[in-house]
Amino acid sequence: MPLVLFFVVIAGTGVALQADMWLEGKSPPGSEKAPPPAPGYSAEAARAAVAKALAMVAAAHPGAALSGVSLDRKGQIVTVNLAESRPVRIDITTGALLPPMPPQEKGWHYVLQDIHAGYFAGTVGRVVSALAGLGMLVLSATGLFVYLNLFRRRFRMGRKNPFWR
User: Fold this and answer.
1) What integer is the mean pLDDT of 10-35?
2) Count of CB atoms within 10 A of residue 116's CB?
3) Of all helices (H) and strands (E), which one includes residue 154?
4) What is the mean pLDDT of residues 145-149?
5) Which residues are 78's β-sheet partners?
6) Which DSSP string corresponds to 128-152?
């Protein structure tokens, strides 16, 4: 029975997330088309830019663990994510370190996402959210099995309507 509370929270925040995106006129994350690369942008130039940025970061932060690297569409700014500090942004054309991006404000949509996915409660919240999702799958599958079993028995008795009246 306590799992019902999690189902209600997950379903409620899921509906609220969809309503928020609909009211704001936003598309789901990842559904937008990527802008075309800038003229002159090539894989070789991208590799060279990233290699140059990684060399600069290695010199400035020796022994730092990397967690990711990204290059903007113009092939000009490389962002190197370090495991223990803020991302380092480098303008490849000038070699200058750029100031870090200001942290993004977490609006209502992000608060809903944190609740929906269980992030607000750390690892325990994520595990509970995953178990609640698994529970929904199990309940759906067993409910379908029970329905099909009852429908098959009704069909054998001559009641061919798929819905009970």
Assistant:
1) 79
2) 19
3) helix 122-156
4) 92
5) 71, 90
6) HHHHHHHHHHHHHHHHHHHHHHHHH
